[in-house]
Amino acid sequence: MPEITTFLPQYESNKEYNAELLRKSIPMMVKNNISTHPINYAIWYEYVADSNTKLNQAIDTLIADKTPFDDTTSLNLYKSHICNASVDSFEKINSSLNNILSDTVSSLESSSDKVISAGINFAACSTQLEQSENSNEIKTVLSSIITETKQLTDISQTLKVQLDDAHHEMDQLRHELSKVKEMASTDALTGLLNRRAFDTEIINLINNHKNMSHCLLMLDLDHFKKVNDTFGHIVGDKVIRYTAKLLKKHSSDHHHPARYGGEEMTVIMPKTKLAEALQIAETIRKSLSTSQLKPKGSDNSIGTITVSIGVTTLKADDDISSFISRADNALYEAKETGRNRVIHH
Questions:
Q1: Are 232 and 306 members of one domain?
Q2: Could you say which of 31, 57, 84 is where a domain stops?
Q3: Domain edge (last residue) among 50, 84, 118
Q4: Are 309 and 331 in contact (CB under 8 A)?
Q5: In terms of domains, do 223 and 305 share one?
Q6: Is 263 a catalytic residue?
Q7: What is the C-alpha separation between 320 and 300, in angstroms, rounded?
């Protein structure tokens, strides 16, 4: 299934899986009178894969409302739920930033001109006051000063409102950028960190470990090929998603669950002692092995699903390779000694 990059999705190459989705998607497209061009196929490929919840909800709503799937509708679905509108988001943010900067600069320039003009008028009034001995002239000058002062107050208030508005818009843009950043670091199938984000977090951990206890879990579903061969890749994807939910449920808030590749996942555990890491790993293992997973629309269980887990702690002289390799070796030992177990190296 797709892993979201900054702009476009990339798909894993699996002929059997793709053939299964093709077999399911084409009849759906024919049934809904949809042209089989690349954008539409990408949309229905994801729909029958049942891994993109928001896309499926949007399509189900359109079907229920009997909305025709014209080119505009298809393009909106593609941009909103497959490409995640990353390009549009960046363009919108860039345009908004330019508008805010332009408006703010214009406001500052206008206010500056008015302040300079007021300063010149104040200087002239000061000279008149020094030279005038007539009370009426003095009153006129003072009235002019009061008017200029009021105008400066109005300018100040207007500028404050404009700057407050700009600050509010900047906060909104920061939120949009945060969403785009999250999109670029999230695995589309599981909602976990993707491999690129995992690499970033593991580098940060090793570069800033500061003599504290840090751990790493490497997890791999047992006999997962059998699940795919028996029930199909769509059910296999659901098993992966369910396992990912267990990782998120049982990991602490400061941990970083990630999809490492295929059915292999990992949890980076900063500021975590070994005993806690082993306890979390064991909880995940037990929770999965006792779960009764069923295919959609069926009352029959797909059987017991188990996971093997390797655990290691960060050493002072570790680099990325040694840290990950040690966890991977522990995982390999868990596989070789019977699976469905947690091994620490």
A1: yes
A2: 84
A3: 84
A4: yes
A5: yes
A6: yes
A7: 43
* CA–CA distance, 308 with 217 (Å, rounded to integer): 10
Q: What secondary structure letter does DSSP report for 6?
A: S
- Classify residue 299 as exposed, middle or buried by CB count within 10 Å of its CB (0-12, 13-18, 19+): exposed
* Same-domain check for residues 36 and 57: yes
Mean pLDDT, the chain, rounded, equals 81
Spatial separation of the C-alpha atoms in residues 311 and 274, rounded to whole Å: 8
pTM of the shown model: 0.56
Query: What average pLDDT does this structure show over 294-318?
Result: 88
- 115 token code pair: 């302040």
End-to-end CA distance of the chain: 32
Catalytic residue among 133, 263, 333, 336: 263
**Domain around 292:** 195-344
- Asked whether 344 and 311 are in contact (CB, 8 A), the reply is yes
Separation between Cα atoms, residue 293 and residue 91, nearest integer Å: 43
Contact yes or no for 227/301 (Cβ under 8 A)? no
